[in-house]
Backbone:
């Protein structure tokens, strides 16, 4: 009987994860689409950024340097993909 409760509890937890994950993905897609539409499309967004300051579209950015926090965050991010 206890094993049944454990298995059903795990299944319930997995289903809530699936539902919440689906909502997060759907929200991210809707936010992306609304942002592009409200910005007038990719071309208009790029043109607006270029008219404000051309450095906004250049690497490494408007300041011309990358702060140390950028490198640390990239190392942490990519370590999840490289060392699994």
Residues:
């Amino acid at each position: 009987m206890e094993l049944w409760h454990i298995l059903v509890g795990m299944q319930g937890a997995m289903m809530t994860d699936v539902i919440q994950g689906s909502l997060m993905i759907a929200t991210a897609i809707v936010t992306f689409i609304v942002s592009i539409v409200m910005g007038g499309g990719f071309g208009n967004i790029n043109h607006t950024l270029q008219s404000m300051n051309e450095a906004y579209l250049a690497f490494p950015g408007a300041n011309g340097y990358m702060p140390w926090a950028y490198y640390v965050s990239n190392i942490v991010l990519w370590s999840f993909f490289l060392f699994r």
Notes: The CA atoms of residues 1 and 73 lie 46 Å apart. The chain has three helices and no strands. The chain has a mean pLDDT of 87.
